[in-house]
Write a structure and sequence with these properties.
single chain; alpha+beta; 23% helix
């Protein structure tokens, strides 16, 4: 008769849960000028998008100015393609400090983001501003 070696019982060595030290919370940083402007721009573009799902360049410029942008520094993308069709989305941007706040309206939905200013000092690439 073949004898089987007894299998060792699985030892249950559950260690007590260790408390993970939490990193001390950093004090809340005040929002940057670009972050403050992006909140105002979001509100302004949301109001615009509620009235029209596909605003034109002038409406985008007005929304930017309503949010506090400087007209001479504000760039707005085209609203009509070279073939005469309406664009899928329209964008507007303005530099705030060393960042660009860019707002977009597409099908009545608003998106706002903050990106670095380009080397040219502008927010958009190309000739149409």
């Amino acid at each position: 008769m073949a004898s089987q070696a007894p299998t060792p019982a699985a030892a249950s060595t559950s260690a007590p849960a260790q408390e993970v030290e939490k990193a001390p919370e950093k004090p809340a940083q005040p929002p940057t000028a670009a972050e403050e402007f992006s909140k105002k721009l979001t509100a302004s573009l949301t109001t615009l998008a509620a009235g029209t799902k596909a605003p034109n360049r002038q409406q985008m410029m007005t929304a930017m100015l309503d949010a506090g942008a400087v007209k001479e520094k504000t760039e707005v993308s085209v609203d009509i393609t070279p073939t005469g069709l309406a664009v899928d989305a329209i964008e507007a941007a303005t530099p705030i400090a060393e960042e660009c706040v860019i707002g977009q309206v597409r099908d009545g939905k608003v998106a706002v983001t903050i990106l670095p200013v380009l080397a040219s000092g502008r927010c958009f690439v190309g000739d149409v501003h």
